[in-house]
Amino acid sequence: MVLGAPNVVRGASHAGNVAAAELVAEGLCDALASDYHYPAPARAAWRCVELGLLDEAQAWALVSERPARLLGLTDRGRLVPGQRADLVVMEPGTRRIVATLAGGQVAWMSGAVAERFVG
């Protein structure tokens, strides 16, 4: 079952459906996704950790490895040799995404991380 990451972040469904966090807690969530709010998957993963529903590895698998597996994308979703190397880089204190890499290539950078590369 694929659930909406924004639902986890908000703590409820905007349409009155079941709260996704409840289904995550019951082990019924195969993946978290969002088709309209790009920050939601990362925020939902952290929210699952904050709520004590999952540990960090389990939470991040819901927004990386598990969606890739459901879509049959066997070359991505995990950090292992031979994989595609799609990454997000976060500031530890703020959890703000400061860089993304797609297929091992820098796709976006911001703030101090970008300054280190340019400076």
TrEMBL record:
A Pfam family that the UniProt record links to this protein: Amidohydro_3
InterPro entries cross-referenced by the UniProt entry: Amidohydro_3, Metal-dep_hydrolase_composite, Metallo-dep_Hydrolase
SUPFAM superfamilies named among the record's database cross-references: Composite domain of metallo-dependent hydrolases
Amidohydrolase domain ranges (all copies): 53-92
Keyword list, A-Z: Hydrolase
Superkingdom: Bacteria
Molecular function terms, GO-annotated: hydrolase activity, acting on carbon-nitrogen (but not peptide) bonds
Name the UniProt record assigns to this protein: Amidohydrolase 3
